[in-house]
Specification:
By secondary structure, the chain is an all-alpha fold. The protein folds into two domains: 40 residues, no CATH class; 196 residues, MetI-like (MetI-like fold, Orthogonal Bundle), CATH 1.10.3720.10. It is 83% helix and 0% strand. Helix 8 packs antiparallel against helix 10 and helix 11 packs antiparallel against helix 12. 27% of the residues are buried.
Length: 274
Amino acid sequence: MSQEATVAVSPGTEKKRQVKKPRGEPLLERFSALILAAFILLVWQVSVPLSGISEFVLPTPWAIASRIVTDFPLLISNAYVTLFEVLAGFGSAAVIGVPTALAIFYWRPVERAVYPLLIALQTIPKVALAPILVLYLGYGWAPKITLAFLIAFFPIVVATVVGLQSLDKGLVNLVRSMGASEWQTFTKIRLPAALPNIFGGFKVAISLSVIGAVIGEYVAAEQGLGYLQLLANSQFDTTLNFATVVMISGLGVMLYFILTFVEKKVTFHRESAK
């Protein structure tokens, strides 16, 4: 009897033992990116003086960080300009891209007409479009925002279409057999299931929007991080050049993690397949 009682109780405790992870593993996973970044920066900081490379050619991380602190007002004022261009281009791509994906998903003629054009547009290097956009739209905000829009539009449309198509057809038929309308099926089943894919497209698009805005600033601008980098190049100021690159990267990372935070708030939790 005592042996049977032990067997009856053991599955719960055994399950807890299987789920339990080593205590140090979550901490290592949480800070793994910081540890790797710190290691790379440390190697960079030590190897530059030891190898005899001039800071004019390759400044150390400490020199770049010091320059960011010294010229922070200059960097942040130009970062605001680039941020506006990125958000305007990405926002336009999201507002237009999601309805376009819905039209592609629900109407076959739209899919056959629009998809080839999207692929053709995506294959054109955006650097080649930048001078043309400046020619037609001038030197103001418009060419940078348009370039950020064009480079972000394709991943949003494709990710949304894939997310809408990924829902199990049997589940859709089950809901419809219970009397649900197409609008109810979309709002209650199809859209929530597609949100992880949609946000995946958003996160790719926001990173590409930064690239698009900076490319536009390379071609024609009087302010922005891309313009500041060109100015640093013309003055052979390598440290300021690297500081601008760090700001551009930090801008993209910040926007990416903001979207990740929003995604966790509005989408359902889906376990990893690992």
